[in-house]
Design goal:
By secondary structure, this protein is of the alpha/beta class. It is 41% helix and 14% strand. It has 2 domains: 248 residues, 3-Layer(aba) Sandwich (Aspartate Aminotransferase, domain 2); 139 residues, Alpha-Beta Complex (Aspartate Aminotransferase, domain 1). The protein is built from 15 helices and 12 strands. It has a 7-stranded mixed beta sheet with strand order 1-7-6-5-4-2-3, sandwiched between helices. A 5-stranded mixed beta sheet has the order 8-9-12-11-10. It starts with 8 loop residues before the first helix and ends with a helix. The structure holds pyridoxal-5'-phosphate. The site of pyridoxal-5'-phosphate (PLP) has 14 residues, from helix 4.
Amino acid sequence: MKENSKVNFETKCVHAGISEYEFGPVVPPIYQTSTFKFESVEHGASLFAGEKKGYTYTRMLNPTIQAMEDAIAQLEGGHKALGCGSGMAAIHTVFASLTQAGDHVVCSTAVYGPTTTLLNTIMKKYGVETTFVDTSNLDEVKKAVKPNTKVLYVETPGNPTLSISNLEEIYKIAKQQKANLVVDNTFMSPALQNPIAFGADIVLHSLTKFLNGHADVVGGIVVVKDEATYQHFRKTLNQLGGVIDPFNSFLVHRGIKTLWLRMQKHCENALVIAEWLEKHSLVKSISYPGLKSHPQYELGLKQHRGHGGMITIELAGGLEAGKIMMNSVKLFQLAVSLGGVESLIQHPASMTHFSMGKEARLAGGITDGLVRISVGIENVNDLISDLESALEEVRKVNQV
Ligand SMILES: *Cc1c(COP(=O)(O)O)cnc(C)c1O
């Protein structure tokens, strides 16, 4: 589809990024090739000089990858996008492109764990300092900004608290400082939130999650707003080498066709489950942006077209209760990651963060009873029955 901002989002999901190919296929062919033949030395030279359009080498650009990139750039309302080998490769490409030794970053405390680690280890080693603040509190953001701040990095809703940060206001703070506002939009997907509409300079995703949606690809993407930034980022990505491959790009592009449909169902199911969990006596607290009890519910209504498929609860009974719940679910699968059609459940204190020890966990906001749920597109009654019987097991053991 030629870029056409007039058509609606569902239509874009189906048609964006698809152009003309030899023999007229309706989906982009998988150009599973590492390199491209030149017709002559002159042709090769003109391609490398950027005078002619075409492809030279798949790390630089490939038609299947580009089709997927164009689709996501359109869905986010950006100029162009860069496909990366994982969400982390996308995040690394962004920081490597935007910062140098002596620069400063302001980052949400509620971000994906490995993002924090990247900033605290590799970026720090390269001379980039980071201040972590609760970006849902604008005063904290204002206080953290310094004359050498180059990037304000926000994830909203945040991980795993699902706190919501005000993108429009944070953008104003970023611009006063001539810094870039970078938003990790993985939890919402472009179907539910478009950070560029609120000013964001850069939007990135882990494609592994909602965009692909089928738990069979690891990938990432960076969306930019202008050609100069695109060229600069493309050079960085070519040098770092963290690119995605044609087959995974094909799968992601295929997944995107049902993004709107899937997101509707994720939101619908998650709201029903959140309302049910909120009333459950073994749930001490719950965070879901679609519940009126969420502290930034009103802000969420302005920023999202739906509240997403992620729910975080605090279970009564702490570590033991969490373990029992994890071992009792049958339909929900015990796994990290999120955003696929299948429902997943995770208990950081007994699983991903167990080896850290309780004190370190608490310092990072991981309480013993914290359970994160990625609600899939199954029948919601089946999902609730599964949670109900798992919580019944927790109750039995707690009473003994
Ligand atoms: C998973 C995730 C990432 C990292 O993506 P990978 O594809 O696993 O490298 C980054 N941000 C968020 C919010 C994520 O959920």
